[in-house]
Amino acid sequence: MAGQFYEGEGAALARQVESCFTDPRGPGTLPTRQRSESRRVRAIVVPHAGYVYSGPIAAHAYRLVAADRPPESVLILGVDHYGASPGAALSDRPWLTPLGPTPVDSDLVAALRHAPTVDVNENAHRREHSIEVQLPFLEYVLPHPRFVPLQVGFGPYEFLKEVADFVRSAVRDRDVLLIASTDFSHYVPSTTAERLDRMAIDQILAQDARGLYETVTRNDISMCGIAPTTVLLAALEGLDVRPRLLRWGHSGEVEKMRDVVGYAAMVFESANERSPVK
Questions:
Q1: How many beta carbons lie within 10 A of that of residue 258, not counting itself?
Q2: Shortest CA distance to 268 belongs to which of 178, 176, 197, 137?
Q3: Which one of 176, 189, 193, 197 has the minimum C-beta count within 10 Å?
Q4: CA 136/CA 147 separation, integer angstroms
Q5: Which residue, among 51, 50, 49, 64, has the nearest Cα to 17 in the 3D structure?
Q6: What's the fold here for domain 10-270?
Q7: Residue 74, Ramachandran bin (φ over 0: left; ψ between -120 and 50: alpha; else beta)
Q8: 64-106 pLDDT, tens per residue?
Q9: What is the domain partition of the chain in residue ranges?
Q10: For residue range 127-157, what is the model confidence (pLDDT) as tens digits?
């Protein structure tokens, strides 16, 4: 997706990522280079549209990641926009953006594999952008990140809960940052987007995985990442974390348009700021 969702050349992409942080819709400043000795950020929810539209929103969450002790690995839960996989698809090879390669944590991939529900399927990732667009941000805020891409198709809640159980088991004894990649309402008036997105966001803040799933499906909210976000919430169940909404916005803030796409940046933090997540 280089040259489409984000700049296709390394120096231009680095400048674009920095502009997302300094943008008025973003945090307003570049992330700190002075990190905490502990790690509070357990998980984030971020959008995946073109950087001009959603990059500044995502930057609110990545600014917090930049200030924390770096995790040992990152698990990105992405969308299956094209129905490319019957279950949840892993990738087990390095990914490349104009900022350089990002190696995959093969040990975590092995821990996540539970065929046929969760398995390696490289072809399923070929056309998908929801995971890839997170990598330039990760490469900017983390030193030498390792990651695992897990593309989650939409299905019954029981299927998503099973995927979440595998995720929770795989990361239990590992120092892993979880990321759910999702946009919210698609191509509706901004007032409608704000009303519908608030319904979904309230369920995320309540840490209610089933509640989010049922709210989105019952109210026909066009939240493309309902599957990965439901998996994230279910995987965090029982952990002492506190969710916060950092910023909600929409594509109509960038240019005048009748119908917009909604975006949100959210964070789940450990309740005890002095203890690492591991």
A1: 9
A2: 178
A3: 189
A4: 12
A5: 51
A6: Protocatechuate 4,5-dioxygenase; Chain B (3.40.830)
A7: beta
A8: 999 999 999 999 999 999 888 888 999 999 999 999 999 999 9
A9: 10-270
A10: 999 999 999 999 999 988 999 999 999 999 9
